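To: structure subgroup
Subject: Chain for Friday's discussion

All,

I'm putting the inputs and outputs inline so they're searchable in the archive.
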Amino acid sequence: MAAKEVELKQIKNGQTVDDDEPVQSHVVPPDGGYGWVIMGAAFLCNVVVDGIIFSIGLVVAALADSFEVEISKATWVGSLLSGFYLIAGDWKFGLFQLICLSLTQTVVDRAKAAISHLKAIR
């Protein structure tokens, strides 16, 4: 048997591409390249919020003088601030479980029902 020669052609969008056309050498990000900007902005927001919460002890004396209260009463500001900040994670996770996981379970249940229905048809 004689070997056949096969010519390989590049196909793009259902049409053959000439060899002399430049091929795209990098992947274009689907978000237009602004993902790093969004990530940087989120990072800076977390730095500012965490900086305020975890350095509140430096401004307690100024808060107490400004509002003319005892320092023991002004420390409640920092305690409540960090407490609400940390408990928000639990609320967020609870909402995630309530909403997202129930939706996922619904999709899985529907897929299982469709598969069992297809098996019953055969």
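Points worth raising on Friday:
The helical segments are 35-54, 60-67, 71-121.
The longest strand covers residues 10-12.

D.
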